[in-house]
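#structure-requests
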Amino acid sequence: MKVNPYILLSLIFLALSLTMKSIPQLDIQLLKFFNTLMFNKTFFSYFTEIGNGLVCLAITVPLLSIVSSKTQLNNVKVQTLVFVGLGVGLIVKSLKELTSLFAVRPGFYEFEDVTYLEPVYLYSSFPSGHAATIFSLFFVWVSLAFRNTKISHSNLIITILLIFALLVSLSRVIVAAHWLSDVLGSIALAFVALNAIRFKVLKNILFESKVAKFSSFFLIGAAWTYIISTGSIY
């Protein structure tokens, strides 16, 4: 029987995440190690929010779609990325509600030797929404944009993109907003999203529906309106 590689990778990362959750002291030590890398609070206050769902909707999604449409890459439609992001966001929200009683954030413990970045969240740690969003969008975009293409240095470009997504995700640990186990769980979810775009039942919404297309542009506009009117991404 052929094994689905995306599901296999998802299970591996989920197993790593749950294993780390079962060894709290390891999660704590890794949190403190990564936290020492926060060399500048101002830089990380912006860098870590690259994975924020609102920022991804307003900036990352349109940017990735434009790049794929204006180059030799396959055109990845805006609606594909928007609805992948929305789907992942809903799953993250559901998982946070289910795990809220026992998956608390590092800020809950108020470690004296940890530097927290404001705002300090205490509730519902698993998984990291920022990490799940940035990884899901990049996984899906890379998978579709580079499929059956012959672009010079494509492997290098893909590697750089995925390293960038990893750095944004790890920044959630660096700023003490999440545990490393949360990020591993988010990567597991991203592989699920990568597998989900292959389902025929989702084909119309993700690739063909005009309603989904115009809904996506509306949501992007709404995201920009919120950011500009409130001056905040929280």
